[in-house]
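Lab intake sheet, docking and co-folding queue.

SAMPLE TYPE: protein with bound small molecule
LIGAND NAME: zinc ion
LIGAND FORMAT: SMILES
REQUESTED OUTPUT: full 3D complex as structure tokens
PRIORITY: normal
SUBMITTED BY: R.K., bench team

The fields below were copied directly from the construct record.
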Amino acid sequence: MASMMQLIEELWFLKRDLVSDDYDRALERLAQEVPMTIHAVPSGTKVWSWTVPEKWTCHEAYIETLDGRRLLDYANHPLHVVSYSLPFDGEVTREELLAHLHVHPTNPDAIPYVFKYYQRDWGLCATQTLRDSLADARYRVVIRSEFTPGALKIGEVYIPGQRPENFVLAAHLDHPAMVNDDLSGVVVGLEVARRLLAAAAGGETPYYGVRLLIFPETQGSIAYLSQHEDEIPNMLGGLFLEMLGNDAPHALQQSFQPLSAPDRALVTALAGHEPAAHVGGFRTVIDNDERQFNAPGVRVPMLSLSRVVNPHLPTSRFAPYPEYHSSLDTPAIVSQARLEQSVELVLELIHAFQHNRYVVNHFKGEVFASGYGLWVDYKSDAAGHKRRFEIMDRCDGTRRVADIADELHISFQDVWQVIALLIEKGLVSLSDTPQPTDPHLR
Ligand SMILES: [Zn+2]
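RESULT FIELD (auto-filled):
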């Protein structure tokens, strides 16, 4: 089994364009690590209001001076050609070349990532430094790209639960020669799946199933959802994983339904695990495939976990970290330790989702705490004493674990610690549906 960093080293420089041979290679490599179903959706397939694009291959591309000096070569870096660029072969004026030569907006030494799936144009990408050096009147440009019928590929790993309902983890595998966006999310998701599969093999069947989806962004989620409409009602919640390797604290973006059960579970569990982490509203931290899951007609409450730098700034969605969408997004900016921390956090969030059910009391009246070994001495631990009773007061079949945490402004873990004890003593049990025990409500 390869480590997350080993997988990144192996796969990052592949030309993982939306529908491409290198994307398929990367997915097949990941499928060697865990049991994975690969879905193929042919080019041209209508997926809701979208159409699956053709496969794009670039065999060769370069800029040369008229006397044959090569200034830029696709063979050196996959970002030198606009993803899905039209082919081109000819002599152009300097002005015409500059109109098709994209540079990074702020860093003069970075090659930007530019994609044009539907605009149908040719284009190349270079550093500002190279662009500034172009002084000749005319250049020769060659882009030998090809559009052919192919298939968009989606990898699916499913860890069955006791229930048919499930939690969705998702990450996108496309983006040529980049790491943090979003190979980092892919390897974290894969490692989480690997650990859940190992736990299941050891007899720990989760309550809800967990589904990991790996796809090209936007079109991949639309393609999957449109072809699995019957499964959508069983998707109770989800978490999109991206940008998890760079050096910044975690940022959790809430779903379109911030009062949903998964939102409450994940937000209160994050508070217990990493109190300094940022929590922001839908479409305020970062934009990605969680949009498709939250969208009309789907409405899966999907949150998003990242390490967006300065997530409180309105610009974070378009500039999440300095190396974003450029040739500087390399293995050097991510670390195995940070990926490992993200795996731990995701497992903790899934644990909270799994246990966030209604707490039904089998007791009436205040529990005889010392008789059940539940007494916390108020003289030595006044806060602990108060909290235990505050939690027990709310075990009435109408509140989930995270609702209690939310109401008391404490973490999921703090509530769960008490609830687990009450379950062990036979005083409460968990239920998927509300079971009010207030006789006035019956
Ligand atoms: Zn991106």
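REVIEWER NOTE: The mean pLDDT is 97.
SIGN-OFF: pending second check by T.M.
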